[in-house]
Structures are given as C-alpha cells and as structure tokens.
C-alpha cells in the first residue's frame, strides 16, 4: 500500500507532487501539514499530532470533512512526523513517501531524514521528496532511477560504511569504505537511467538532487 505522509515543512505545489499525493492509497497528515493538503484540495485519510501548529480554520475544515483525528499531548517523546510513520507501519504501508519534511528548521529536517532509518529497518521502501531532492537511507541496497547527468550523493552517517559499491554512475565504487566526515561520495553523476548502491555495514544517506 503506497502511503504519503505530509508534514508542515516547505513544499512546492508542482504537478508531479500533486500526482504523487493523489496516487497514494493512504494519505497521512502530520499536524500543520494540513495547510498543504487544503491548498491542493486533497482530503487525507487521517490526521495525527498534537495540533499545535495547524491553523484553526484548517482544523475546522478537515473536521467538517469527517477526517479521522488522532490527537497527542504537546508534551510527548516523538515528533508528529515520527508518530505518523509509526502509524503507517502499523497499518501495513508497503511504500512511504515523506513530503513537507524539510525547511528552515534544521533540527526537524535532520530528525526527519534520520527517521528514514526506522523505515529502512522495516524493509519498507521510503524517501523524502522536496522540489530539488530525493533522499533515501541505505542500510543494505538501493536502486534509484534518474536522468543521465543528474547528481547522486552518498553521505556516510555512521563512523564508517564498508563494502560500498555503486553502479550506473560516472564514478563507480567497488567494495569501498566511506568515513563519516568525508565528502568523497558527493556529486556523482548518473551515467545510466538507473543507479544501484549497496553496502555491507553502516548507513548512507543517498540524495538525488538538482539545482
């Protein structure tokens, strides 16, 4: 079941983003992410959070639509985004796209990126998408499509990542080791329309990006 989780960060209302949301079988809204769905005239299946950042008019709008609301107290140990991810996993999501997860709050942006690890450990394909980036967490392997000439970066987020092998890119790696703090994996280039990334141990953040 393809799932969209939409949060309150920055999001461009492009045709492709709108199509991704409308094609989903399960749409989960995290608190203030309601503003994006209202702007796109899309009704989610469920809204989750402490509802401290949602505009009252948006909350009233979706309540009148009969949307299921799952409320938590503001004093909690998880962000609204993580609560939505947990709910998606518990309700049999098999593919998760996270939108509105990046923005001016770098603490939330980083936390949301690292939440991809939780999903990867469940062996559920997932990514964060914004206007310029598609972000994945890799703890085993990843196949990712792209246009020839697009950029793909590998960022180690554990002390070291071993057995790094990449194919389909301008600069291949074979059983390499990437160390935390190294920029070796930045700005590789799609040589084919599909790239394959695999590792033996550790974790990579893999980002397909365009300016």
Concise summary:
The chain contains five helices and 14 strands. It has 211 residues and is an alpha/beta fold.
How many helices? 5
* DSSP summary, beta strand count: 14
The assigned structural class equals alpha/beta
- The name of the CATH topology of the largest domain is Rossmann fold
Q: Mean of the pLDDT scores?
A: 95
How does the overall form come out from the CA principal axes? elongated
Query: What's the CATH architecture name of the largest domain?
Result: 3-Layer(aba) Sandwich
Query: How many discrete domains?
Result: 2
Distance between the termini: 31 Å
**CATH superfamily membership of the largest domain, which one?**
Thiamin pyrophosphokinase, catalytic domain
Biggest sheet: strand arrangement:
4-3-2-1-5-6-7-14-9-12
Poorly predicted runs of 5 or more residues: none
Structure description:
The chain has 5 helices and 14 strands. The chain has 211 residues and is α/β, with parallel strands linked by helices. It has 2 domains: 2-131, 3-Layer(aba) Sandwich (Rossmann fold), CATH 3.40.50; 141-209, Jelly Rolls (Sandwich). The strands form 2 sheets. The chain has a 10-stranded mixed β-sheet with strand order 4-3-2-1-5-6-7-14-9-12, sandwiched between helices. A 4-stranded antiparallel β-sheet has the order 8-13-10-11, with no helix packed on it. Strand 10 (160-167) and strand 11 (173-179) form a beta hairpin. The radius of gyration is 18 Å and the shape is elongated. The model has no long low-confidence stretch (mean pLDDT 95).
